[in-house]
Description:
alpha/beta, eight-stranded parallel sheet, 10 helices, disordered N terminus
Amino acid sequence: MPETRRNFLSAAAATTACSLLPFPASPTVRAADPPVRNGKPLLKLSLAAYSFNRLFARRGTPEQIAAAEMNLEKFIDYCAEQELGATELTGYYFPKEVTTEYLLSLRQRTHRLGLDISGTAIGNDFCLPAGEARDRQLAECRRWIDYAAILGAPAIRIFAGKVPKGDTEEAAVERCIDGINQSLDYAATKGVFLALENHGGITATPDQLLKIIGGVKSSPWFGVNFDSGNFRTDDPYRDLERIAPYAVNAQIKVMLHTADRKTESPADLSKVIRILQNANYRGYVALEFEERNPFEEIPKVLKQLRDLI
């Protein structure tokens, strides 16, 4: 048999064998590498429930939640009224006792109103030393992975934490990486992304955040929750550019803080959006409004973001 025909038949046989597999093999992804994206940037607008933080009851009873000016049901309705395509349901405002029936009611409500749940968020601390407190943090993360899977939320915003008093940052970083790795093993079985936010503590600078990313095990279910207002450095825009390629979720704030934390200034939203677009980001962008008068101001900011996106 001529060599060219033999090569062709060998290649065809290999192709046929691969086509019979139920799914193609997943590519190996290193956690320290930015996710590979196809096509052009695509930013989908969402709104974080934290935007109404002062109006929610935190982990309340059903009676407390019903009496609050804002609850998750009202917030979902508000997002639909603002003609958004997604809503971010922050974990702080869920009832103290979360049931599967409650989670499914939220999933039903959002879908009926044409909304995706772009993600949820918890306030964990993985820097804690071994003991009951750390075990509770890890258990809470696993519990919220389950909740996210039921809700159909693709990602959970997680924190790293801060250095415990009397400890070293090096030891805290090691424990944080271990906590993320343990949680990732479980998140991967549920199809939920863990998105580490640049949120002070041991992620106060891009160097600190990238050091943690580099230590996390290879997983396609891990990335960064890009928060535009959380770097308190001499050049936040420069530092946001460094972490944007790793983003699997994004939150936009309207204010920036100075390195000394004493003053703040309005964010250049067009610059923030360009940073995400230049990183070829494809995913949700949730406005996280932390200022006064949210009912009056949020529609104005959403219009700005729509125009920019």
